[in-house]
Write a structure and sequence with these properties.
By secondary structure, this protein is of the alpha+beta class. The chain has two domains: about 140 residues, Fructose-1,6-Bisphosphatase, Chain A, domain 1, CATH 3.30.540; about 110 residues, 3-Layer(aba) Sandwich (D-Maltodextrin-Binding Protein, domain 2), CATH 3.40.190. The chain has seven helices and 14 strands. Helix 1 packs antiparallel against helix 2 and helix 5 runs parallel beside helix 6. It binds adenosine-2'-monophosphate (2AM) and calcium ion (3 copies). One calcium ion (CA) binds next to strand 4. Its EC number is 3.1.3.25. Its cofactor is Mg(2+). It catalyses: a myo-inositol phosphate + H2O = myo-inositol + phosphate.
């Protein structure tokens, strides 16, 4: 496996797909709903996923592909090389704002993250990492993450998770929201993860995401010394949905022990 050429090829495809998405801004979108009225998908999400699948199948016919919009393979194992693709992460932002969304692609070998690409299409900012070779924002290396105290940290999370809801006891996150310096909510898991990677926020919490949401971000954060787990502090399996808790080193342990350990996540 020539990882270096796969890495540069994948970056090239992401740039091409981003250019197509930027060109789509002056076309009319076709919008459909998925699991509920606020769970949206557009023709551009679908076309972008199909674009990547065609490229990957041509160049690497033996690789497997997991894609949010369902054009990839149905996987029950992560053996071999698996591409985890979210063609547009932050579709609601894409539709309403034409910004704050990203293309997210993780490439894993036997379940281990090798390459992570998160492309902020509108800002033309590609966050990328090749495991063991550093993480970059475009051509600039990203510095390793350092420790931060809870009262000096900004935590990214969705306001829904602090409201009464059927999935969790919402009261459990209130002390953390109270003690943190601030909270932010951007609406794209992939971007929120690379914001942890670049120190714009210090941690990110989500109650339920899928492997394509965090596969790329996890490679980038771990490359910089950050910690990626579910809310119980366990490793993710990259095959099923899970909660997500990513944070700087030290801060991850502190929040887990002092705020999250009693939750039934
Ligand atoms: P998406 O835009 O690719 O669907 C929004 O807070 C974040 O949660 C986005 O990264 C969004 O990804 C993700 N997400 C995962 N499952 C979702 C769902 N059922 N409805 C809306 N957003 C979802
Ligand atoms: Ca979606
Ligand atoms: Ca997503
Ligand atoms: Ca998506």
């Amino acid at each position: 496996m020539k990882w270096e050429s796969l890495y540069s090829q994948a970056k090239q495809w992401v740039n091409e797909a981003g250019e197509r998405i930027r060109q789509s801004f002056n076309q009319r979108l076709s919008i459909q709903t998925k699991s509920n009225a606020n769970d949206l998908v557009t023709n551009i999400d679908k076309e972008t996923e199909q674009f990547f699948i065609k490229k990957i199948k041509e160049a690497y016919p033996h690789h497997k592909i997991m894609g949010e919009e369902g054009f990839g393979d149905k996987l029950d194992s992560l053996k071999g090389i698996v591409w985890m693709i979210d063609p547009i992460d932050g579709t609601m932002n894409f539709i309403h704002q034409q910004r704050n969304f990203a293309i997210s692609i993780g490439v894993y070998e036997d379940g281990v993250g090798k390459i992570g690409l998160v492309y902020d299409v509108v800002h033309d900012e590609l966050y990328h990492a090749f495991s063991g070779k550093g993480a970059y924002l475009n051509e600039t290396p990203i510095a390793n993450l350092s420790e931060t105290a809870v009262n000096k940290s900004i935590i990214a999370l969705n306001a829904t998770w602090v409201m009464k809801n059927h999935r969790i006891d919402h009261n459990l996150l209130i002390p953390l929201v109270r003690d943190a310096r601030g909270t932010r909510s951007y609406g794209s898991a992939a971007l929120e993860m690379v914001f942890v990677a670049t120190g714009r926020v210090d941690a990110y919490i989500s109650m339920r995401l899928s492997p394509w949401d965090y596969a790329a971000g996890a490679v980038i954060i771990e490359e910089l010394g950050g910690v990626v787990t579910n809310l119980r502090g366990e490793k993710l399996d990259y095959l099923t949905q899970d909660s997500l808790f990513v944070a700087k080193p030290g801060l991850h342990q502190t929040i887990l022990q002092e705020y999250l350990k009693d939750g039934k996540w």
